[in-house]
Design brief:
85 residues; mainly beta; 3-stranded antiparallel β-sheet; elongated
Length: 85
Amino acid sequence: MYWNSVDEDHSGYIKVEIVTSNNTYLVDIVAPGEFDTDLAFLHMGGTIVADMDASDTAYVNVYISAGAATNDIEDRSYFSGCLLC
């Protein structure tokens, strides 16, 4: 996830997860209120290896807790996967 303009007045946290048919994996978590100023950009990312079968699904879940601060996700953000044999 690539974020633009993360507001340091955010009172909670931002969490990125990968949710599969079998499990939920925490990818990254950050508390913008811990910074002294607004962030011009923020990169949140990670890698997981998930046990999945042919009909399983996976998606990215972004959870923003509490507060009305402005946070913008760039359209350059991406998710990719591959089959490991």
